[in-house]
Amino acid sequence: MDDYPLLDVFLTMLWFFLWIMWLFLLFKVVADIFRDHELNGWWKALWLIFCIVLPYLGVLVYIIARGKGMGRRDIEQAKASEAAFKDYVRKAAGSAEGDGRASHVDELAKLADLKEKGALSEDEFQAAKQKLLA
Predict the structure, then answer these.
(1) How far is 22 from 16, CA to CA, in rounded Å?
(2) Which residues, in sequence order, are CB contacts of 55 under 8 Å at separation 6+?
(3) Each residue's pLDDT tens digit, 64-81
(4) d(Cα 107, Cα 129) in Å, to the nearest integer?
(5) What is the rounded CA–CA span in Å between residue 35 and residue 52?
(6) Residue 85 half-sphere exposure, CB side, CA atoms within 13 Å?
(7) Helices then strands (H, E): number in the chain?
(8) What long-range pairs does 2-7 form, CB within 8 A, spacing at least 24?
(9) Running DSSP on this structure, what letter comes out for residue 102?
């Protein structure tokens, strides 16, 4: 280890880290090319060939030309994933009884909504609530 100074170790680690970052960026761009619904198949093929044949230039040009759309697609995908997760949690929490019926909380919320809209009077609301909680 005497013939490999500490600064060279640091520079080697830095280059390795930058190479890994480059691979992540390249895969991110390739994934975005296939995820983009605005491009037709020929444009996707051209972008992919450009990024494979001239990777540094291809990725740089793609980021400059289509980077804003890439960020927008990332945000849309994150929102869709979050909405799907929340929907799954709601369904899993609502059917905790196992028989597929709506939970008592959902039923109470529906009753309160009907009362607010004026479809139920106070007496009808209280009677339905007592029946539900019994």
Answers:
(1) 10
(2) 26
(3) 999 999 999 999 999 999
(4) 9
(5) 17
(6) 6
(7) 5, 0
(8) none
(9) P
Q: What does the chain come to in residues?
A: 134
**CA-to-CA separations, 15 to 21, 25, 56, 83, in angstroms, rounded:** 10, 15, 15, 39
Q: How far is CA 117 from CA 12, 109, 113, 121, in A?
A: 69, 12, 6, 10
CA 122 distance to own-chain centroid:
43
Read off the pLDDT of residues 75-112 as tens digits, 9 standing for 90 and up: 999 999 999 998 888 888 765 444 445 577 778 888 88
Largest CA-CA distance found in the chain, in angstroms, rounded: 90
The one-letter amino acid at 76: E
Contacts of 32 (CB under 8 A, 6+ apart): 66, 70, 73
Assigned token pair, 22: 């480059």
Q: Considering the chain, what percentage of its residues have pLDDT values greater than 70?
A: 92
CA 59-64-53 angle, to 5 degrees, is 25
Residue-wise pLDDT for 3-15, tens only, equals 888 899 999 999 9
